[in-house]
Amino acid sequence: MGRGPLGSPPQGFFVLPATNAPNIWVPIADDCKALNVTDCGTRRGVRPFNNAISPGFQVNSSSSWDDIGTFELGQNDFLGFTGNGDFGYDTVGLIRGDSSETITNNDTAVTAYASPEFWLGEIGLSNRPMDLGQDDKPASFLSNLKKAGNIPSLSFGYTAGAPYRSTKIPGSLTLGGYDAGRATESLQVPLNGDADRPLTVAIQGISVSNALTGDVDLSTQSFLAPIDSSVTDLWLPKSICDAFESAFGLQYNEQTNRYIIQSKNLTKLQQQDPILNFTIGTELSGGNITTITLPYDAFDLQAGFPIFADTLDYFPIRRAADSSQYMIGRVFLQEAYLSVDYERRYFNLSQTNYTQPLPATKIITIPPTDLNTTSPSTPHPLNLNPPSPPVP
């Protein structure tokens, strides 16, 4: 989770990397007031402001806020996500993972949103400009960072981390490069021509070993799906969800359209520790492929408000209504490392390196295509992930 100040004077937020959002998103203060939830701001990653607990971004308290207007959010609306936001420009800061420095970027596009569908704020990693239906089309956050000389290129590397492992491994986000210590041998995939689905891969197969029903092929069909870390779950064809339901003893909750894990099955699954394998390719069949392996612990999640009234054990897959809703969410990126080079129009996907002891951080610069890379003015990547915890 990234962190940084926003506005003048600065208001602090913890935010999630969002691979398909172009700008900075933070919950607006009025949304928490409407929800009437205890510790709402704190639970949404909002830091104290003016020596008091803050419910969200207080637009009127920022002297550098330049308002564009109020618009529908639009992000992932095809999944049923709704809400409005106050869009504008403001000063945005990013704190390096080791807290050694804060990088500040002025006149950055910000969405102060009102929607519990997007519980935590986001740092947008997409490079497409924003389209608000006006002549003004704000540039992406990455573009602004490069233009200001804060990163060398329009690129990033990211993995969501593995808090379920014994050492509680944090996520890793590098802007303008990637962490070679986290990546392994990767699959290179061209960027999709659809600007709204650039990180699209082919899911050629999904299998599980040691499930409640033994070793099972969960998918008998190939399909295309974009990777989007702003979404937690995997949105899959119903037939594949049905196979998951049988293999893991899941119960479908009609009210929330999510899968619940009953306590008796949860205990069995934790004891048996199933292993899931995703075969990822550049094409629906054949071509170059890689396999990303996830332990059952990566799917052993709990959720409360705003998804459930009470905290419940749930399994993070969703039924897609049609192919337009197929999506690979952040759960997958707990065990996969993603690096994207927008300038050369490809991305790499690999198994995240979680060998013990954990490998040292090794930040590699992705050079720009429009500048002599030997120039001393070329900036270094921004390594935003916190240092890894010590290995016992």
Automatic annotation (TrEMBL):
Pfam families the record matches: Asp
Biological process (GO), any one: fungal-type cell wall organization
Region (Disordered) location: 368-392
Domain called Peptidase A1: residue spans: 1-350
Signal peptide residue numbers: none
The organism of origin for this protein: Pseudopithomyces chartarum
Matches recorded under CDD domains: pepsin_like (cd05471)
Identification of the protein by name: Peptidase A1 domain-containing protein
UniProt xrefs under InterPro entries: Aspartic_peptidase_A1, Pepsin-like_dom, PEPTIDASE_A1, Peptidase_aspartic_dom_sf
GO-annotated molecular function: aspartic-type endopeptidase activity
GO cellular component term, pick one: extracellular region
Family: Belongs to the peptidase A1 family.
